[in-house]
Model the fold of this input.
Amino acid sequence: MLSDSPLSLLDSPAVDPALWPLDPDVVFLNHGSFGSCPQAVLARQDGLRRRLERQPVRFMVRELEGLLNASRHALAGFVGAEADDLVLIPNATTGVNAVLRSLSFEAGDELLVTDHEYNACRNVLNFVAERSGARVVVAKVPFPLRSADDFTGSVMAAVTPRTRLALIDHVTSQTGLVLPVAEIVRRLSARGVEVLVDGAHAPGMVPLDLQSLGAAFYTANCHKWMCAPKGAAFLHVRRDLQPRIRPTVISHGANSPRTDRSRFQIEFAWMGTNDLSAVLSIPAAIDFMSKLLPGGWPAVMEHNRRLALAGREVLCRALGIEAPCPDGMIGSLASVPIPDADSCEPPKSALYLDPWQDVLMDRHRIEVPIMPWPAPPKRLLRISAQVYNSLPQYEQLAKGLAELVREKASPAR
Done:
């Protein structure tokens, strides 16, 4: 059930949408894919870029390390970690690559993943397995599902004495489920299985305490629900495992004579000349979002969750279906099954572009993702909820979706 707060509070955006640079003529219900960076945070990023270009040597050689340290410390406080245990990277896929391509596996080892895993990260797992002779084991979890226990049970049922590592989402991309990662990590660790958590959507959507979680590896994006600029993410590695993890790009740090910090920090801090203004803007994003609502970040997360639940309820009513998962597994995303696609042709984009997605944009100016899952022609529609959204936007989507369903049932002759 929805919280006791009146739904009328969701009839208007919680904050002025003009704080973001989004096109006011588009109903943007897809914050989850790439996020959107607020104007004020973009201004901070622009200032950093200008500072870099004004005196590049001073910035890169004399100032950058201190700025990176400040960004790591701000982020560490937000995600419940020690700053020395996390490094700044461009995106969560880079973090998954760094971990999996650093570890050694042998023929016969099993790498566990679920069928809800994001395709890009699943591809990294496949690559590493093919190279080493290890085997990818896929735990199949149905959706709709009745409880979080269904997910955990499916994962644990796939563990064998050969399981070496599990790649587990914190928040699934296609199905939008907030998973019980603490329980999954605890149970897998008890079986001697290390866990790499793909937390791409988690920071800014759900509270994090990475020290308490205890996962071997945790990587996540800051450009989604934290609203940092694109190219801002982090990798957290348990301290005893840090010597084994190398960046995807080997650079100056590989033979640095420095001893004042860990090799882990030295190597990841410099992977060649790059625009690091996105990761340096993380503190500005944390601060900006914390001031949007009375109650700070917890209030932002709770507002977005209530809005996602309310939007899902509107869609389920329009489609005549039950909610496909418990309310307790919803954060700022919610997915619903929609009628099968008419064709199983490959999508136009690596990030999907269903024909209905184009129609909703062309007819109604609604941007919302429709994804093939678990495999074509089955598909899901996923909504996002951010403080600039409002309940009438999901009602507008429901009307457009109902129109498409009617047309599919009664095609023109």
Remarks:
- The longest strand covers residues 163-169.
- The chain has 14 helices and twelve strands.
